[in-house]
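Q: My hope is that you can spare some time for a protein that puzzles me. Underneath my words sits a plain record pairing an amino acid chain with its backbone structure tokens. Those tokens are not coordinates but codes from a learned vocabulary of shapes. Thank you; the sequence and its tokens follow:
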Amino acid sequence: MNNTKKVILHLVIRIGILVLLLTSVFLFWYFTYDPHKYCDETGHKHVDGGLGLFIIGFLITQMFYGGMLIEMIYLFVKKNRILAFANLGFLIISLCIAGACMFLMN
């Protein structure tokens, strides 16, 4: 039972870090993005802020997954295999969900 609590706490902390990073980027974009920044009297010249939000979110997610991969290797070397396999399971499940979402959007 102790290992289960340890694994759940480990995963909740990692998921919380990812959610905190992506939420902070979204809130920064939401409160600072102005699509009419370059508009003048002659017409609308909108900028695509959603694309920038997607790119930054994608980069944050990739860096987070890279960090989890490094942590997984560190945990294997440290002989803490249960937490390393928890990281591996989280990576596999989240990438399968992302792949399924991409398949369904096409």
Summary: The mean pLDDT is 84.
